Sequence to fold (512 residues):
Amino acid sequence: MQKPLILITNDDGYEAKGLRCLVEVAKEFGEVVVVAPDGPRSATAHAITMSVPLRLRPYHTDDDGTRYFRTNGTPCDCVKLGMKVVLKNRPVDLVLSGINHGSNSSISVMYSGTMGAAMEASVENVRAIGFSLLDYDPDADFSTAMVYVRRVVAQVLAHGLPPYAALNVNVPNVPLPQIKGIRITRQALGYWHEELEERTDPYGGTYYWLTGWLVNNDLGEDTCEWALAHNYVSIQPVQHDLTAHKLIPLLKFLEE
Amino acid sequence: MQKPLILITNDDGYEAKGLRCLVEVAKEFGEVVVVAPDGPRSATAHAITMSVPLRLRPYHTDDDGTRYFRTNGTPCDCVKLGMKVVLKNRPVDLVLSGINHGSNSSISVMYSGTMGAAMEASVENVRAIGFSLLDYDPDADFSTAMVYVRRVVAQVLAHGLPPYAALNVNVPNVPLPQIKGIRITRQALGYWHEELEERTDPYGGTYYWLTGWLVNNDLGEDTCEWALAHNYVSIQPVQHDLTAHKLIPLLKFLEE
Fold:
Protein backbone atom coordinates (compact mmCIF):
# COMPACT_ATOMS: atom_id res chain seq x y z
CA MET A 1 0.00 0.00 0.00
CA GLN A 2 1.27 3.45 -0.94
CA LYS A 3 2.24 5.79 1.86
CA PRO A 4 -0.02 8.83 2.37
CA LEU A 5 1.22 12.05 0.78
CA ILE A 6 1.33 14.87 3.34
CA LEU A 7 1.85 18.54 2.44
CA ILE A 8 3.02 20.73 5.32
CA THR A 9 3.07 24.49 5.74
CA ASN A 10 2.81 27.11 8.48
CA ASP A 11 2.57 30.86 9.03
CA ASP A 12 5.58 31.37 11.30
CA GLY A 13 8.00 30.77 8.43
CA TYR A 14 10.37 28.05 7.30
CA GLU A 15 12.75 28.43 10.25
CA ALA A 16 10.12 27.96 12.98
CA LYS A 17 10.61 25.25 15.55
CA GLY A 18 6.92 24.35 15.37
CA LEU A 19 7.29 23.46 11.69
CA ARG A 20 10.22 21.14 12.39
CA CYS A 21 8.24 19.39 15.13
CA LEU A 22 5.24 18.91 12.84
CA VAL A 23 7.44 17.46 10.09
CA GLU A 24 9.06 15.07 12.57
CA VAL A 25 5.69 13.57 13.54
CA ALA A 26 4.24 13.59 10.03
CA LYS A 27 7.14 11.52 8.71
CA GLU A 28 5.94 8.63 10.88
CA PHE A 29 2.83 8.46 8.69
CA GLY A 30 3.82 9.13 5.12
CA GLU A 31 5.73 10.97 2.43
CA VAL A 32 6.17 14.58 3.48
CA VAL A 33 6.72 17.70 1.37
CA VAL A 34 7.19 21.11 3.02
CA VAL A 35 6.30 24.44 1.40
CA ALA A 36 6.65 27.28 3.91
CA PRO A 37 6.78 31.07 3.83
CA ASP A 38 10.27 32.62 3.77
CA GLY A 39 9.50 34.56 6.95
CA PRO A 40 6.75 35.18 9.48
CA ARG A 41 3.23 35.47 8.05
CA SER A 42 1.15 35.59 11.21
CA ALA A 43 -2.37 36.98 10.84
CA THR A 44 -2.41 36.76 7.05
CA ALA A 45 -5.67 34.81 7.12
CA HIS A 46 -6.72 33.61 3.62
CA ALA A 47 -4.67 36.26 1.85
CA ILE A 48 -3.26 35.27 -1.54
CA THR A 49 -0.57 37.07 -3.50
CA MET A 50 -1.59 38.91 -6.63
CA SER A 51 0.51 42.09 -6.69
CA VAL A 52 4.00 40.61 -6.83
CA PRO A 53 5.35 37.48 -8.57
CA LEU A 54 5.59 34.37 -6.45
CA ARG A 55 9.02 32.84 -5.96
CA LEU A 56 9.54 29.24 -4.91
CA ARG A 57 12.94 27.89 -3.90
CA PRO A 58 14.10 24.53 -2.58
CA TYR A 59 16.11 25.14 0.57
CA HIS A 60 16.77 21.74 2.04
CA THR A 61 16.48 17.98 1.49
CA ASP A 62 16.61 15.52 4.39
CA ASP A 63 18.67 12.35 4.19
CA ASP A 64 15.42 10.42 3.74
CA GLY A 65 14.59 12.52 0.67
CA THR A 66 12.03 14.83 2.27
CA ARG A 67 11.99 18.07 0.26
CA TYR A 68 11.61 21.58 1.68
CA PHE A 69 10.63 24.72 -0.29
CA ARG A 70 10.17 28.33 0.74
CA THR A 71 8.28 31.15 -0.92
CA ASN A 72 7.64 34.87 -0.61
CA GLY A 73 3.91 34.07 -0.55
CA THR A 74 1.33 33.53 2.15
CA PRO A 75 0.36 30.24 3.83
CA CYS A 76 -2.55 30.01 1.35
CA ASP A 77 -0.09 30.46 -1.53
CA CYS A 78 2.06 27.69 0.00
CA VAL A 79 -0.82 25.24 -0.31
CA LYS A 80 -1.49 26.25 -3.92
CA LEU A 81 2.22 26.15 -4.87
CA GLY A 82 2.67 22.86 -3.07
CA MET A 83 -0.24 21.07 -4.69
CA LYS A 84 0.10 22.53 -8.19
CA VAL A 85 3.79 23.28 -8.78
CA VAL A 86 5.80 21.08 -6.40
CA LEU A 87 3.49 18.05 -6.45
CA LYS A 88 2.18 18.69 -9.97
CA ASN A 89 -1.42 17.87 -8.95
CA ARG A 90 -0.57 14.47 -7.43
CA PRO A 91 -3.44 13.70 -5.02
CA VAL A 92 -2.55 14.93 -1.53
CA ASP A 93 -3.93 12.85 1.36
CA LEU A 94 -3.49 15.41 4.10
CA VAL A 95 -2.45 19.04 4.51
CA LEU A 96 -0.98 19.96 7.89
CA SER A 97 -0.32 23.52 9.05
CA GLY A 98 1.71 24.60 12.06
CA ILE A 99 2.54 23.84 14.72
CA ASN A 100 1.70 27.49 15.34
CA HIS A 101 3.58 29.39 18.03
CA GLY A 102 0.50 30.74 19.84
CA SER A 103 -3.20 30.17 20.17
CA ASN A 104 -5.72 30.13 17.31
CA SER A 105 -8.80 29.90 19.49
CA SER A 106 -11.94 32.02 19.35
CA ILE A 107 -11.93 34.82 16.76
CA SER A 108 -8.20 34.30 16.10
CA VAL A 109 -9.18 31.53 13.68
CA MET A 110 -10.44 34.24 11.32
CA TYR A 111 -7.10 36.08 11.22
CA SER A 112 -4.87 33.02 11.39
CA GLY A 113 -2.53 32.22 8.52
CA THR A 114 -2.16 28.72 9.96
CA MET A 115 -5.88 28.14 9.57
CA GLY A 116 -6.01 30.07 6.28
CA ALA A 117 -3.75 27.37 4.82
CA ALA A 118 -5.83 24.53 6.28
CA MET A 119 -9.06 26.04 5.01
CA GLU A 120 -7.51 26.55 1.57
CA ALA A 121 -6.95 22.81 1.35
CA SER A 122 -10.48 22.08 2.54
CA VAL A 123 -11.91 24.21 -0.30
CA GLU A 124 -10.39 21.64 -2.65
CA ASN A 125 -11.79 18.89 -0.41
CA VAL A 126 -8.37 17.82 0.78
CA ARG A 127 -8.32 16.79 4.45
CA ALA A 128 -6.59 19.48 6.47
CA ILE A 129 -5.59 20.16 10.05
CA GLY A 130 -4.10 23.26 11.63
CA PHE A 131 -2.20 22.77 14.90
CA SER A 132 -1.45 25.51 17.43
CA LEU A 133 0.28 25.52 20.80
CA LEU A 134 -0.70 28.11 23.39
CA ASP A 135 2.82 29.49 23.65
CA TYR A 136 4.23 32.31 21.51
CA ASP A 137 7.84 31.60 22.53
CA PRO A 138 10.05 30.89 19.45
CA ASP A 139 11.68 28.14 21.54
CA ALA A 140 8.40 26.76 22.94
CA ASP A 141 8.24 23.18 24.21
CA PHE A 142 6.21 21.27 21.60
CA SER A 143 6.48 17.84 23.24
CA THR A 144 2.87 17.76 24.49
CA ALA A 145 1.58 19.11 21.20
CA MET A 146 3.51 16.46 19.25
CA VAL A 147 1.75 13.69 21.18
CA TYR A 148 -1.61 15.10 20.09
CA VAL A 149 -0.46 15.75 16.53
CA ARG A 150 0.40 12.05 16.37
CA ARG A 151 -2.96 11.01 17.82
CA VAL A 152 -5.12 13.27 15.63
CA VAL A 153 -3.22 12.55 12.40
CA ALA A 154 -3.50 8.81 13.04
CA GLN A 155 -7.26 9.08 13.58
CA VAL A 156 -7.86 11.31 10.57
CA LEU A 157 -5.81 9.07 8.26
CA ALA A 158 -7.69 6.02 9.57
CA HIS A 159 -11.22 7.42 9.59
CA GLY A 160 -11.14 10.39 7.22
CA LEU A 161 -13.00 13.64 7.75
CA PRO A 162 -16.43 14.80 6.59
CA PRO A 163 -16.31 16.46 3.14
CA TYR A 164 -14.86 19.99 3.01
CA ALA A 165 -14.03 20.00 6.72
CA ALA A 166 -10.83 21.23 8.27
CA LEU A 167 -9.80 20.94 11.92
CA ASN A 168 -8.50 23.70 14.16
CA VAL A 169 -6.52 21.94 16.89
CA ASN A 170 -5.28 23.99 19.85
CA VAL A 171 -3.09 22.46 22.56
CA PRO A 172 -2.74 23.90 26.08
CA ASN A 173 0.79 24.82 27.10
CA VAL A 174 1.11 22.31 29.95
CA PRO A 175 3.08 19.10 30.54
CA LEU A 176 1.46 16.01 29.05
CA PRO A 177 0.20 14.50 32.35
CA GLN A 178 -1.92 17.61 32.95
CA ILE A 179 -3.86 17.25 29.69
CA LYS A 180 -7.33 15.93 30.51
CA GLY A 181 -8.25 14.78 27.02
CA ILE A 182 -9.73 16.09 23.78
CA ARG A 183 -12.91 18.09 23.32
CA ILE A 184 -14.70 18.76 20.02
CA THR A 185 -15.60 22.41 20.35
CA ARG A 186 -17.27 25.39 18.77
CA GLN A 187 -15.61 28.80 18.35
CA ALA A 188 -16.05 30.96 21.44
CA LEU A 189 -17.56 34.23 20.22
CA GLY A 190 -14.88 36.64 21.42
CA TYR A 191 -13.08 39.60 19.92
CA TRP A 192 -9.70 41.31 20.24
CA HIS A 193 -9.77 44.41 22.37
CA GLU A 194 -7.21 46.44 20.53
CA GLU A 195 -5.23 49.54 20.91
CA LEU A 196 -3.03 51.17 18.35
CA GLU A 197 0.11 52.15 20.16
CA GLU A 198 1.33 55.45 18.77
CA ARG A 199 5.07 56.05 18.41
CA THR A 200 7.29 58.62 16.77
CA ASP A 201 10.10 57.57 14.42
CA PRO A 202 13.57 59.24 14.51
CA TYR A 203 12.43 61.58 11.72
CA GLY A 204 9.38 62.87 13.60
CA GLY A 205 6.83 60.72 11.76
CA THR A 206 3.97 58.99 13.57
CA TYR A 207 3.40 55.26 13.33
CA TYR A 208 1.29 52.64 15.05
CA TRP A 209 1.60 49.10 16.34
CA LEU A 210 -1.49 47.01 16.84
CA THR A 211 -1.65 45.58 20.36
CA GLY A 212 -4.46 43.91 22.23
CA TRP A 213 -5.89 40.99 24.07
CA LEU A 214 -8.71 38.56 23.46
CA VAL A 215 -11.99 39.28 25.23
CA ASN A 216 -14.26 36.27 25.59
CA ASN A 217 -17.79 36.80 26.85
CA ASP A 218 -18.91 33.40 25.58
CA LEU A 219 -19.00 31.18 28.67
CA GLY A 220 -20.34 28.09 26.91
CA GLU A 221 -18.75 24.87 28.15
CA ASP A 222 -18.78 23.58 24.57
CA THR A 223 -16.32 26.24 23.36
CA CYS A 224 -12.64 26.17 22.49
CA GLU A 225 -11.89 28.69 25.24
CA TRP A 226 -13.56 26.59 27.92
CA ALA A 227 -11.76 23.44 26.81
CA LEU A 228 -8.34 25.14 26.74
CA ALA A 229 -8.87 26.83 30.11
CA HIS A 230 -9.61 23.38 31.55
CA ASN A 231 -6.54 21.74 29.98
CA TYR A 232 -8.36 19.91 27.21
CA VAL A 233 -7.02 19.85 23.67
CA SER A 234 -9.62 21.71 21.57
CA ILE A 235 -10.60 20.44 18.13
CA GLN A 236 -12.91 22.83 16.27
CA PRO A 237 -14.27 21.75 12.89
CA VAL A 238 -14.21 24.77 10.56
CA GLN A 239 -15.96 25.47 7.29
CA HIS A 240 -15.47 27.92 4.45
CA ASP A 241 -19.17 28.58 3.92
CA LEU A 242 -19.37 31.99 5.57
CA THR A 243 -23.15 32.33 5.09
CA ALA A 244 -25.12 33.19 8.21
CA HIS A 245 -27.84 30.72 7.22
CA LYS A 246 -30.09 31.49 10.18
CA LEU A 247 -30.30 35.12 9.13
CA ILE A 248 -31.61 34.46 5.61
CA PRO A 249 -35.30 34.40 6.64
CA LEU A 250 -34.78 37.48 8.82
CA LEU A 251 -33.49 39.51 5.89
CA LYS A 252 -36.24 38.78 3.38
CA PHE A 253 -37.53 42.32 3.97
CA LEU A 254 -34.58 43.50 1.85
CA GLU A 255 -35.88 41.64 -1.21
CA GLU A 256 -38.07 43.48 -3.65
CA MET B 1 -31.33 64.06 15.49
CA GLN B 2 -27.64 63.39 14.94
CA LYS B 3 -26.57 62.18 11.51
CA PRO B 4 -25.32 58.57 11.31
CA LEU B 5 -21.53 58.18 11.38
CA ILE B 6 -20.34 56.09 8.43
CA LEU B 7 -16.79 54.71 8.10
CA ILE B 8 -15.79 53.73 4.56
CA THR B 9 -12.93 51.59 3.28
CA ASN B 10 -12.14 49.28 0.36
CA ASP B 11 -9.48 46.91 -0.91
CA ASP B 12 -8.79 48.47 -4.30
CA GLY B 13 -7.00 51.41 -2.70
CA TYR B 14 -7.68 55.08 -2.09
CA GLU B 15 -7.65 56.06 -5.77
CA ALA B 16 -10.30 53.55 -6.88
CA LYS B 17 -13.39 54.82 -8.68
CA GLY B 18 -15.57 52.40 -6.72
CA LEU B 19 -14.54 54.08 -3.46
CA ARG B 20 -15.47 57.53 -4.78
CA CYS B 21 -18.88 56.25 -5.90
CA LEU B 22 -19.54 54.68 -2.49
CA VAL B 23 -18.60 57.90 -0.69
CA GLU B 24 -20.90 59.90 -2.98
CA VAL B 25 -23.92 57.80 -2.01
CA ALA B 26 -23.00 57.49 1.67
CA LYS B 27 -22.87 61.28 2.06
CA GLU B 28 -26.63 61.37 1.39
CA PHE B 29 -27.12 59.50 4.68
CA GLY B 30 -24.64 60.81 7.20
CA GLU B 31 -21.21 61.97 8.27
CA VAL B 32 -18.59 60.08 6.28
CA VAL B 33 -14.96 59.32 7.12
CA VAL B 34 -12.74 57.42 4.68
CA VAL B 35 -9.74 55.27 5.66
CA ALA B 36 -8.42 53.37 2.64
CA PRO B 37 -5.29 51.39 1.76
CA ASP B 38 -2.58 53.36 -0.06
CA GLY B 39 -2.69 50.90 -2.97
CA PRO B 40 -4.45 47.74 -4.14
CA ARG B 41 -5.07 45.11 -1.44
CA SER B 42 -7.21 42.63 -3.34
CA ALA B 43 -7.43 39.14 -1.83
CA THR B 44 -5.99 40.15 1.54
CA ALA B 45 -8.95 38.60 3.37
CA HIS B 46 -8.84 39.28 7.12
CA ALA B 47 -5.10 39.89 7.16
CA ILE B 48 -3.84 42.38 9.72
CA THR B 49 -0.43 44.01 9.82
CA MET B 50 1.97 42.95 12.56
CA SER B 51 5.42 42.89 10.95
CA VAL B 52 5.75 46.54 9.91
CA PRO B 53 4.56 49.75 11.61
CA LEU B 54 1.26 51.14 10.41
CA ARG B 55 1.29 54.60 8.87
CA LEU B 56 -1.83 56.75 8.60
CA ARG B 57 -1.91 59.95 6.60
CA PRO B 58 -4.69 62.43 5.76
CA TYR B 59 -4.71 62.94 2.00
CA HIS B 60 -7.81 64.98 1.26
CA THR B 61 -10.70 66.94 2.76
CA ASP B 62 -13.85 67.69 0.77
CA ASP B 63 -15.44 71.14 0.81
CA ASP B 64 -18.15 69.71 3.09
CA GLY B 65 -15.49 68.65 5.61
CA THR B 66 -15.39 64.92 4.76
CA ARG B 67 -11.97 63.59 5.74
CA TYR B 68 -9.92 61.01 3.83
CA PHE B 69 -6.98 58.99 5.20
CA ARG B 70 -4.73 56.37 3.63
CA THR B 71 -2.56 53.70 5.23
CA ASN B 72 0.02 51.07 4.32
CA GLY B 73 -2.20 48.52 6.07
CA THR B 74 -4.89 46.11 4.96
CA PRO B 75 -8.65 46.73 4.72
CA CYS B 76 -8.99 45.15 8.19
CA ASP B 77 -6.36 47.57 9.51
CA CYS B 78 -8.32 50.44 7.93
CA VAL B 79 -11.37 49.56 10.03
CA LYS B 80 -9.28 49.34 13.21
CA LEU B 81 -7.40 52.58 12.47
CA GLY B 82 -10.61 54.34 11.48
CA MET B 83 -12.56 53.39 14.58
CA LYS B 84 -9.76 53.69 17.13
CA VAL B 85 -7.35 56.37 15.86
CA VAL B 86 -9.28 58.62 13.47
CA LEU B 87 -12.66 58.45 15.24
CA LYS B 88 -11.19 57.91 18.73
CA ASN B 89 -13.80 55.24 19.58
CA ARG B 90 -16.82 57.40 18.70
CA PRO B 91 -19.68 54.95 18.03
CA VAL B 92 -19.82 54.12 14.31
CA ASP B 93 -23.30 53.48 12.90
CA LEU B 94 -22.24 51.76 9.72
CA VAL B 95 -19.08 50.49 8.03
CA LEU B 96 -19.19 50.33 4.24
CA SER B 97 -16.56 48.62 2.10
CA GLY B 98 -16.14 48.90 -1.67
CA ILE B 99 -17.53 49.35 -4.15
CA ASN B 100 -15.24 46.52 -5.20
CA HIS B 101 -14.10 46.31 -8.80
CA GLY B 102 -15.07 42.67 -9.38
CA SER B 103 -17.25 39.94 -7.94
CA ASN B 104 -17.10 38.67 -4.37
CA SER B 105 -19.51 35.80 -4.87
CA SER B 106 -19.07 32.15 -3.89
CA ILE B 107 -15.71 31.25 -2.32
CA SER B 108 -14.30 34.68 -3.24
CA VAL B 109 -15.88 36.01 -0.05
CA MET B 110 -13.23 34.10 1.91
CA TYR B 111 -10.31 35.77 0.10
CA SER B 112 -11.88 39.19 -0.26
CA GLY B 113 -10.31 42.21 1.41
CA THR B 114 -13.57 44.07 0.84
CA MET B 115 -15.43 41.52 2.93
CA GLY B 116 -12.53 41.16 5.38
CA ALA B 117 -13.10 44.79 6.32
CA ALA B 118 -16.86 44.35 6.63
CA MET B 119 -16.47 41.23 8.78
CA GLU B 120 -13.93 43.02 10.97
CA ALA B 121 -16.60 45.59 11.82
CA SER B 122 -19.17 42.88 12.49
CA VAL B 123 -16.85 41.26 15.06
CA GLU B 124 -17.26 44.46 17.07
CA ASN B 125 -21.01 44.32 16.39
CA VAL B 126 -20.94 47.35 14.12
CA ARG B 127 -23.32 47.06 11.17
CA ALA B 128 -21.31 46.47 8.01
CA ILE B 129 -21.89 46.02 4.30
CA GLY B 130 -19.46 45.12 1.53
CA PHE B 131 -20.46 46.10 -2.00
CA SER B 132 -19.04 44.59 -5.18
CA LEU B 133 -19.76 45.14 -8.87
CA LEU B 134 -19.23 42.28 -11.33
CA ASP B 135 -16.75 44.28 -13.41
CA TYR B 136 -12.98 44.38 -12.81
CA ASP B 137 -12.48 47.42 -15.10
CA PRO B 138 -10.80 50.31 -13.20
CA ASP B 139 -13.21 52.62 -15.06
CA ALA B 140 -16.28 50.41 -14.53
CA ASP B 141 -19.76 51.94 -14.69
CA PHE B 142 -21.02 52.00 -11.09
CA SER B 143 -24.35 53.71 -11.83
CA THR B 144 -26.46 50.56 -11.32
CA ALA B 145 -24.50 49.60 -8.23
CA MET B 146 -24.98 53.07 -6.73
CA VAL B 147 -28.76 52.72 -6.98
CA TYR B 148 -28.58 49.53 -4.92
CA VAL B 149 -26.04 50.96 -2.48
CA ARG B 150 -28.56 53.73 -1.81
CA ARG B 151 -31.42 51.26 -1.38
CA VAL B 152 -29.59 48.83 0.91
CA VAL B 153 -27.98 51.52 3.07
CA ALA B 154 -31.35 53.21 3.55
CA GLN B 155 -32.96 49.93 4.62
CA VAL B 156 -30.15 48.96 6.96
CA LEU B 157 -30.07 52.38 8.63
CA ALA B 158 -33.86 52.25 9.02
CA HIS B 159 -34.24 48.65 10.19
CA GLY B 160 -30.80 47.66 11.53
CA LEU B 161 -29.22 44.25 11.07
CA PRO B 162 -29.24 41.16 13.28
CA PRO B 163 -26.37 41.19 15.83
CA TYR B 164 -22.89 40.43 14.47
CA ALA B 165 -24.13 40.19 10.89
CA ALA B 166 -22.46 41.67 7.84
CA LEU B 167 -23.84 41.78 4.31
CA ASN B 168 -22.04 40.75 1.14
CA VAL B 169 -23.80 42.63 -1.67
CA ASN B 170 -22.91 41.77 -5.28
CA VAL B 171 -24.38 43.69 -8.21
CA PRO B 172 -24.60 42.32 -11.77
CA ASN B 173 -22.81 44.39 -14.40
CA VAL B 174 -25.90 45.32 -16.41
CA PRO B 175 -27.90 48.51 -17.00
CA LEU B 176 -30.41 49.29 -14.25
CA PRO B 177 -33.56 48.32 -16.20
CA GLN B 178 -32.23 44.77 -16.58
CA ILE B 179 -31.93 44.20 -12.82
CA LYS B 180 -34.82 41.97 -11.72
CA GLY B 181 -34.61 42.74 -8.00
CA ILE B 182 -32.79 41.62 -4.87
CA ARG B 183 -32.30 38.09 -3.55
CA ILE B 184 -31.14 37.10 -0.09
CA THR B 185 -28.73 34.28 -0.87
CA ARG B 186 -26.36 31.69 0.51
CA GLN B 187 -22.78 31.25 -0.66
CA ALA B 188 -22.54 28.94 -3.67
CA LEU B 189 -20.04 26.23 -2.76
CA GLY B 190 -17.51 26.76 -5.53
CA TYR B 191 -13.75 26.94 -5.73
CA TRP B 192 -11.11 28.63 -7.85
CA HIS B 193 -9.56 26.37 -10.44
CA GLU B 194 -6.08 27.72 -10.46
CA GLU B 195 -2.93 27.53 -12.40
CA LEU B 196 0.39 29.00 -11.51
CA GLU B 197 1.71 30.53 -14.68
CA GLU B 198 5.45 30.02 -14.80
CA ARG B 199 7.66 32.78 -16.21
CA THR B 200 11.36 33.55 -16.38
CA ASP B 201 12.70 36.92 -15.29
CA PRO B 202 15.45 38.76 -17.26
CA TYR B 203 18.05 37.24 -14.93
CA GLY B 204 17.00 33.64 -15.54
CA GLY B 205 14.99 33.24 -12.35
CA THR B 206 11.62 31.47 -12.28
CA TYR B 207 8.52 33.11 -10.89
CA TYR B 208 4.79 32.44 -10.86
CA TRP B 209 1.54 34.32 -11.25
CA LEU B 210 -1.62 32.88 -9.84
CA THR B 211 -4.35 32.69 -12.49
CA GLY B 212 -7.66 30.91 -12.47
CA TRP B 213 -11.39 30.92 -12.75
CA LEU B 214 -14.27 30.16 -10.43
CA VAL B 215 -15.83 26.72 -10.73
CA ASN B 216 -19.34 26.46 -9.33
CA ASN B 217 -20.93 23.04 -9.02
CA ASP B 218 -23.60 24.31 -6.62
CA LEU B 219 -26.71 24.70 -8.73
CA GLY B 220 -29.01 25.76 -5.89
CA GLU B 221 -31.45 28.51 -6.86
CA ASP B 222 -30.94 30.08 -3.42
CA THR B 223 -27.26 30.85 -4.09
CA CYS B 224 -25.40 34.06 -4.92
CA GLU B 225 -24.26 32.59 -8.22
CA TRP B 226 -27.79 31.76 -9.34
CA ALA B 227 -29.06 35.21 -8.38
CA LEU B 228 -26.25 37.01 -10.21
CA ALA B 229 -26.57 34.84 -13.30
CA HIS B 230 -30.25 35.78 -13.41
CA ASN B 231 -29.61 39.52 -12.99
CA TYR B 232 -30.62 39.76 -9.36
CA VAL B 233 -28.60 41.73 -6.84
CA SER B 234 -27.29 39.14 -4.35
CA ILE B 235 -27.25 39.91 -0.62
CA GLN B 236 -25.50 37.20 1.41
CA PRO B 237 -25.49 37.53 5.20
CA VAL B 238 -22.06 36.47 6.46
CA GLN B 239 -20.81 35.50 9.91
CA HIS B 240 -17.42 35.22 11.55
CA ASP B 241 -18.22 32.04 13.47
CA LEU B 242 -16.28 29.59 11.29
CA THR B 243 -17.38 26.52 13.26
CA ALA B 244 -18.86 23.71 11.18
CA HIS B 245 -21.56 23.14 13.82
CA LYS B 246 -23.17 20.21 12.00
CA LEU B 247 -19.90 18.29 12.14
CA ILE B 248 -19.46 18.47 15.90
CA PRO B 249 -21.51 15.31 16.63
CA LEU B 250 -19.78 13.50 13.74
CA LEU B 251 -16.34 14.09 15.24
CA LYS B 252 -17.02 12.90 18.78
CA PHE B 253 -14.99 9.79 17.95
CA LEU B 254 -11.89 11.99 18.24
CA GLU B 255 -12.59 12.70 21.92
CA GLU B 256 -11.01 10.54 24.52
Notes: Chain B has a mean pLDDT of 96. The helical segments of chain B are 17-26, 75-86, 108-111, 113-123, 143-159, 224-229.
